[in-house]
Design a protein that fits this description.
The complex is a heterotrimer. Chain A contains six helices and no strands. Chain A is mostly helical. The two termini of chain A are 43 Å apart. The chains are: A mainly alpha, B alpha/beta, C mainly alpha. Chains B and C meet through helix 1, helix 2, helix 3, helix 4 and helix 8 of B and helix 2, helix 3, helix 16, helix 17 and helix 18 of C. Chain C: It comes from Salinicoccus halitifaciens.
């Protein structure tokens, strides 16, 4: 996808968000309403204006340079999936196990570390992290299994 | 590899810095090496607030006075204006007597008014120790004079700076309603500190502060002649009557002010609602609870411990700053007070709910 | 007062108390260094230990820690482009580009030295304002506070970058995010979708990390790059110190801004760095702010350390905490048997003065310690992305979770993080979003109180008008000033 088009979509998303926000704001009582209503109406109008402006620019192809500029989608998505996977692991197995698995697998697949190296760095991280938690009372996310 | 080892050494450095701190490592009560039993105080606020300080203040005394000298730790579960943590305590903390809840007026008032996010019931909990707090309403010297002469004579409303109509302000607001005072409540300040500064600036001319804040920050104003107390919110005694605040024996109660002005004792639903709220929010400002389902012997141990704390000389000496000099309640007296306070009549409840809806646009049952 | 100050100095320099101050400094630097852990966490961590402590010892520990957090948090801001705490976001703007150019050491040298100077100025300001604190604080009523939030919001205009549309929209998104949770005027919950987590609103550390750290993580992986684009690190810390010295007026100016903003209760210190950065951008001649101008590091770093001194004034003398950190400090004082209030400048004056000294010393020692750590730590910027990111992610997850110990923190982190990533690749400026978010609550609160209390009368308050003029000058006048100064430089044609 090229950048200009992505920008249009993103602006469209923001427009929808602001619009939904002011529709929702209509249900609030008077005192809670004025601030979000002002903000979202302003946002809604402004994003619409900007959306139209970018659409016109896009039509006119004035931004040929930007058009040529493509943005990556699959690659970032892959790493976002890594992050989500890590969180899912934490959710299911608890922080310590999830961190161990995530670090080990990530270091081998993505960072191309040797097995020994990644084992060592994983172990050290875990030790440091548990030590920190004991020393300064840092708490972990709760998991399904309660670990 | 060199870079990696460098990174690891940096992480170690952080750890080493932590290790420099012998306090934190030795002091944290996570582990339980000596086989002591472990007692956890659930505090439904972030560390550092009034309720947290209250809980932490009690931890060493529970450890000293209870049989078996348990290790006592505090667990903060902030969120939802204390509702998240209180719900969590009621629903998912072990009911074996090892977990205690430190509640405050911010959990009591929503409970009494049937706020919809409340998923706890104090009827299923056993109170161990309770501690009162007081409040004083004050104004400027000129207004105070006019107030004493005839409090219905205010042509222009008195401006009251408050935080939120469904919090502790509710009690103060009800006291104005009892007295039928002409006031304009501006609610939305960030805390009692900012509302006091608003008074000092002249943005408001009617304010209240709780005991320690009054003693520390308003007394100096009274001394230099820019503020004058009107009445204390009072305390509820064992018979359910409103009495003078032991910390402010010289200040009249709302009841006395009313008699003075109108020549008769206050009565009616607003008055009843006011007394009820004073009881739940001030006389029982902070309460430590355990699940009612906990084993009988562990409840008994906690109650004995509370009794011991109440008589501990060191405790009495130190409680001056944290508990503002009030006597704590425990045992049967506490239970009786709680039964009284939390038994809200339907009519008081609807009265307050309607009042909040009409005057402050707030439907508390929707929250 | 000078006499009592010297007495307090003797108290502070007592070796048994000095040890605790160094302990506090050590913890403060580590807490600042780790993204997501802020002063609030550090305070909460130390709180259990101050119970019943000798007040001077407790203060050495707590203030020692608070003073240097804004020094230590510079490391991740410059090296990784991740804010160490929410107070050092603006440092990223130029610090990170400098690190990319291989000048991390120089940037950090400048940053730490400015932190030191700013912190010391903050301590001195605390000392000097003690006699005047009361009239100063009561000068700001709600309408003035509202205008001050507007002043903060006008910074979004300065930081918008190329597209004004994008900048304003980002600011509005921030304001809308800030509106989530309970309304100030009435405890009604907005945009919470029946989740109890959202009733408290989004927490600043989570939003700040999501908007700055999450995009960095993904970009570091996708572009497979190191932070520093050049292999050889050039410039030393000393060079940075010299640069700061050359910009001494900028340093002093920013410190004063920091003190003032920290001092005003109700504004919260989290925008100090942005305001100082914005002012710097407007007033520094021939600047390349945003592309790696070292002065863009000096301004916010000086201000955020100075802020701590300023914010002690309302906290200690009025019992009004301006931030989560000072709120816990108040609790800590209670545990040590002290109460904030006017007594802090009468009977407990020595305690207040020992806070002043601790602030000054901790800032000096903290900065020196950080300067010594530059050499080893700045090599981090030459490690490639995929080696460092997994560890960073673990840290960020822990950090985000600490803000309210709830899964909601992590969910918000990812959602806002994705939004921030899109903003990054599409060249939307992110600082306006953060400023909007931080100021949303104050803006709404003080607007409401002003209207409810005064109607529209407040518009004519002299201080309100002055602030309005400042805002207009800032938004438009910068350009005029620049033209003016250019004319002077080019031969003084102006009369």
């Amino acid at each position: 996808m090229n950048k200009a088009l992505a920008n249009i979509l993103f602006t469209g998303f923001i427009f929808v968000m602001f619009t939904l926000a002011w529709i929702e704001a209509l249900t609030f009582t008077r005192l809670a309403q004025f601030f979000p209503l002002y903000i979202s109406l302003a946002g809604s109008t402004l994003s619409l204006v900007y959306l139209l402006k970018t659409l016109i620019d896009y039509r006119k192809e004035t931004s040929a340079e930007e058009r040529a500029e493509h943005i990556q989608i699959l690659k970032p998505l892959r790493y976002v999936v890594w992050v989500l996977g890590y969180l899912l692991l934490i959710y299911v197995f608890g922080f310590i196990i999830a961190t161990a698995v995530f670090l080990f697998v990530f270091l081998i697949y993505e960072s191309r570390m040797k097995v020994m190296q990644s084992l060592v760095s994983m172990a050290i991280t875990l030790v440091v992290v548990t030590y920190l938690s004991a020393a300064i009372n840092i708490e972990w996310p709760a998991s399904l299994l309660g670990l | 590899m060199k870079k990696l080892s460098l990174m690891i050494s940096i992480i170690f450095l952080c750890g080493a810095l932590m290790a420099l701190n012998p306090l934190t490592t030795s002091g944290s009560g996570e582990e339980d090496p000596a086989g002591h039993n472990l007692l956890t105080f659930v505090v439904p606020f972030e560390a550092g607030g009034g309720t947290d300080i209250f809980g932490r203040f009690f931890t060493p005394y529970f450890s000293d006075q209870m049989e078996g000298n348990p290790l006592v730790q505090v667990e903060n579960i902030p969120g939802g204006g204390s509702i998240t943590g209180t719900n969590e305590f009621a629903q998912s903390k072990p009911k074996d007597g090892s977990h205690l809840l430190t509640s405050s007026a911010s959990s009591h008032i929503p409970y009494m008014l049937d706020q919809s996010s409340v998923n706890y019931d104090f009827k299923n909990m056993k109170p161990i120790i309770g501690s009162p707090m007081g409040g004083v309403v004050y104004t400027t010297p000129e207004k105070a004079e006019q107030f004493r002469e005839d409090l219905t004579s205010f042509e222009e409303p008195l401006y009251y700076a408050g935080i939120s109509p469904s919090g502790l302000d509710l009690v103060t607001l009800l006291s104005y309603e009892v007295l039928d005072l002409n006031f304009h409540g501006v609610l939305g300040y960030g805390g009692r500190g900012p509302s006091r500064v608003a008074f000092e600036q002249g943005e408001s001319n009617l304010d209240y502060q709780t005991t320690s804040a009054y003693n520390n920050n308003v007394k100096p104003l009274v001394e230099n002649g820019t503020a004058e107390p009107l009445y204390s919110l009072g305390q509820i005694d064992q018979n359910g009557d409103l009495v003078r605040d032991p910390q402010f024996p010289e200040l009249p109660t709302v009841e006395e002010v009313y008699i003075d002005q109108y020549g008769e004792a206050p009565s009616g639903e607003v008055w009843e609602a006011y007394k009820q709220m004073v009881n739940a929010a001030y006389t029982l400002n902070k309460v430590i609870w355990v699940h009612e389902d906990a084993p009988v012997e562990s409840i008994a141990r906690l109650q004995d411990g509370a009794e011991g704390i109440r008589q501990d000389e060191d405790f009495i000496e130190n409680s001056e700053t944290v508990l503002e000099g009030y006597d704590v309640l425990s045992g049967d007296a506490l239970q009786k007070q709680i039964d009284e306070a939390f038994n809200v009549s339907e009519s008081s409840k609807t009265l307050i709910q309607d009042y909040l809806l009409e005057k402050y646009d707030l439907d508390i049952t929707e929250l | 007062m000078i006499e009592s100050a010297i007495e307090a100095l003797a108290i502070v320099l007592d070796p048994s108390r000095l040890i605790y101050m160094f302990l506090g400094i050590g913890i403060g630097i580590v807490v600042g260094l780790l993204p997501g852990l802020s002063g609030t966490v550090g305070m909460a961590l130390l709180l259990p230990f101050v119970f019943g402590m000798d007040p001077y010892v407790g203060i050495a520990l707590l203030i020692g820690m608070v003073a240097v957090i804004q020094t230590g948090d510079t490391f991740p801001s410059i090296l990784l482009g991740i804010p160490g705490t929410s107070g050092s976001q603006a440092t990223i703007m130029d610090g990170y580009p400098l690190a990319q150019q291989g000048k991390a050491a120089k940037a950090m040298g400048a940053a730490f030295f400015s932190s030191l100077v700013g912190g010391v100025i903050g301590g001195i300001a605390l000392f000097l304002t003690i006699p005047f604190a009361e009239p100063l604080i009561t000068a700001f009523s709600s309408p003035e506070l509202f205008m001050l939030t507007m002043l903060g919001l006008s910074m979004t205009g300065l930081l918008a970058g190329k597209s004004v549309f994008k900048g304003i929209l980002a600011g509005l998104v921030g304001l809308l995010l800030g509106a989530i949770g309970s309304a100030p005027a009435v405890p009604e919950y907005r945009y919470t979708f029946d989740s109890l987590y959202l009733t408290q609103g989004l927490s600043l550390p989570v939003v700040a990390m999501a908007i700055f750290a999450f995009p960095i993580i993904i970009t570091m992986l996708t572009e497979k790059k190191k932070v520093s684009e050049v292999a050889k690190l050039e410039g030393g810390a000393l060079q940075g110190v010299m640069t700061s010295l050359k910009n001494k007026f900028l340093m002093a100016r920013s410190a004063v801004i920091g003190v003032i903003i920290g001092f005003i209760p109700g504004l919260g210190g989290s925008v100090v760095d942005w305001i100082a950065y914005g002012f710097g951008k407007k007033t520094v001649k021939n600047n390349t702010f945003g592309e790696g101008d070292i002065r863009g590091v000096i301004a916010p770093e000086s201000a955020n350390n100075a802020k701590e001194g300023g914010s002690m004034i309302p906290t200690l003398l009025f019992g009004i905490p301006g931030s989560g950190t000072t709120a816990i400090l108040l609790g800590g004082l209670t545990l040590m048997g002290l109460e904030a209030g006017p007594s802090m400048i009468t009977t407990n004056l020595d305690v207040t003065l020992s806070i002043v000294w601790t602030l000054v010393f901790a800032n000096i020692f903290g900065a020196i310690l950080c300067l010594m750590l530059i050499r080893p730590i700045s090599k981090l910027s030459t490690i490639s992305g995929e080696m460092i990111v997994p560890f960073l992610l673990v840290l960020l997850v822990i950090g985000a979770y600490q803000s309210s110990l709830s899964w909601g923190d992590l969910v918000v982190f990812v959602i806002i993080g994705l939004f921030g990533y899109l903003m990054t690749i599409l060249d939307w400026p992110r600082p306006p979003l953060l400023i909007g978010f931080v100021l949303a609550m104050s803006a709404e609160r003080y607007y409401w109180i002003s209207i409810e209390r005064y109607g529209w009368e407040w518009i004519t308050n002299p201080l309100v008008i002055i602030l309005a003029v400042v805002i207009i000058v800032l938004l438009t006048g910068g350009a005029i000033m620049k033209r003016f100064s250019r004319r002077i430089e080019s031969g003084g044609e102006s009369r």
